[in-house]
Design goal:
The chain is mainly alpha-helical. It contains four helices and no strands. It has helices at about 1-15, 20-30, 45-55, 65-70. Helix 1 (about 1-15) crosses helix 2. The longest helix is centred in the N-terminal third of the chain and has 15 residues, at about 1-15. The chain starts with a helix and ends with a helix. The mean pLDDT is about 85.
């Protein structure tokens, strides 16, 4: 489906930025205070987080309150 293609595209982006670090960065950007990555994983820089969200936002509207409530 179209939704599955969108999700797969966002996952592909997240993998490029280290999946766990990207997941934490995205959730933090969405207002969920889940903290930083634990060593040995590294946290994304502000620039990387912004680039990640910019890329992902081209596919999914993260400002949509429905997405936020479902998470």
């Amino acid at each position: 489906t179209s939704l599955q293609h969108s999700i797969s595209a966002v996952i592909d982006i997240m993998i490029r930025y280290q999946a766990i670090a990207a997941t934490k960065a995205m959730l933090n950007e969405m207002g969920f205070d889940i903290g930083a990555c634990q060593k040995p994983l590294r946290q994304l820089s502000r620039e990387e987080s912004r680039a990640l969200m910019d890329e992902a936002s081209q596919i999914i509207d993260f400002s949509n309150q429905t997405i936020r409530k479902k998470l």
